[in-house]
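Hey Z.,

So I finally got round to the flavin-adenine dinucleotide thing we talked about over coffee. Here's the setup:
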Amino acid sequence: MKVAIIGAGIAGLTSARELTRHGVQVQVFEKSRGVGGRLANKRLEWGNIDMGAQYFTARDERFQKQVDQWREQGIVACWQFNPHSLRSGELTTRPDSTPRFVGTPKMNSLAHALSQNIDIAFQTRIERLERTKDGWSLVAADGHVIQERYDWVVLSLPAEQSKVLLSGTPVECQIPEQTHVPCWALALATLGDVPAEIQGIFGDEVVSWVSRLSSRPQRHFQDKESRQKGLGNYDDLWMLHFSSEWSTAHAKDSAVNITQAGLEWLSAALEKHVEKPLQVVHDFKHYWRYARVKDDKAASSIIADRSSGVGVIGAWSAGGRVEGAYLSALDFVDYFFHEDN
Ligand code: FAD
Ligand code: NAD
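And the result:
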């Protein structure tokens, strides 16, 4: 049995690992140069920055078990912070006991761990799928036809992208439309003295979440070379995720200065907690077209059709979070091995 998996995010890699464990021949195709998808880490001259997911929670027992293993292996650590919230312009705290986790040293360390011994074709964007009499045929973006034929194809992409690839197949109409809303992500390196207890802020209708990246466990932001170049002369690294409403209103081609908007927001939030205004020394921004899910209660965590050998999975179908990506893959593997499903 040969299975092609499109996408090397947490969902694609988890399904690849589980199928491989059970003796299935798996080939993963990934359009970018590395694994992790929306657990992206950007290596900049002045720092290594997690641009996508900032932390994750584990509510389901199956994922908790996996997280425990990752913690034992040193791939995941608990980020114990006291969440701050912005209410009517004031920072308040509402301590809770929710365990929140980060990959160490980067969020995509989980993806690296899952990808061990998995065959992945990088920089291979799949653009077309065809069901032939010998199985699924895959065509890459450069027109190159993958020689192998596959009994199954598993799409672990944002729903919008899976729907395009499966257009014209009976599965297409089961995939919902416009599942995601966008998010501007802004990294700031700042000078200024901010109290240590401010580590994460649940924001408002402009910026929904702020991570003080430099407060998270086991972060290695710079290599020796960038320190020698003097690029490490800052006190803090922050990640601001703008709200979906704000990001939709100020889409990728908007003229708004995202860095200025982010700095103004952060300065206002911290105003009563700093003696001098923060100064930005480096910035980097990224527009995520597929970020939050509009509806975190999809009808089912997988869409699958045994007769044609198609599986459609991904975080979007199970809550839109890292845990959901993992669980949708497990649900698919369960379906795959149980003919009566
Ligand atoms: P992805 O990670 O998107 O993986 C899909 C992969 O498919 C990608 O690697 C992509 O490059 C590849 N691909 C796409 N098209 C093709 C193609 N045609 N051919 C080949 N490869 C292709 N979740 C949390 O739990 N906590 C958070 O704090 C959090 N914050 C977030 C902040 C942001 C800004 C974003 C964007 C997401 C955040 N999330 C968070 C959500 C979480 O990151 C995602 O739900 C999860 O990582 C998605 O995993 P996935 O495997 O379903 O998809
Ligand atoms: P979680 O349980 O920490 O938070 C869920 C939500 O509950 C938070 O967004 C926040 O609004 C609220 N919240 C929780 N604890 C709080 C506290 N002590 N004080 C005030 N508000 C509190 O985490 P989760 O459910 O695993 O979700 C993970 C995170 O991923 C969330 O922050 C979510 O918004 C974020 N996310 C972001 C994007 C994006 O595109 N920016 C996409 C997917 C998920």
